[in-house]
Amino acid sequence: MRKQLSCIIVDDQPICIMLMTTLVKQCSELNLVQTFTDPQLASAYIKDNHKIDVLFTDVQMPEISGIELAAEVYQQVEHVVFVTSSPKSEIKTEKPLKWYYLPKPVNITDLKKLLSDLTRNSRL
Hints:
The protein is of the alpha/beta class and 124 residues long.
C-alpha cells in the first residue's frame, strides 16, 4: 500500500476551497493537511519545515499569484498543481519546477486522472 500524498489547497475564494476539499476527501491517495485563502500564509506554513507532496493552488490571487507561491516553495513541494480557469498555455514558470494543470471547475474524473500521473511521477 502506497503512502498517502500530503496536500495543501490554496485559493483566495472560500467556495473553491470547499469544492476542492470535497473532491480531495474522496481520494484515498491524498491526505489534506491544510487549506489557505491567503497564499502568503501558505508560503510561510510550507517554509516552516512542512514538506508537502502536492500543492493545489489557484493561479490568479491578490498579493501573490499561485505561480509566485510555487516559485517560493518549490524546494519543499514535490508536485505543484495549478487549479485554474486560465488556459494552460498562460501558465509560465521561471523556476525549473514540474507542475500539473487542473481546469476549473474541477471534477472527480480529472482529479483521479491527475493523481494517477502524480503517483507515477512521485519520488515516494
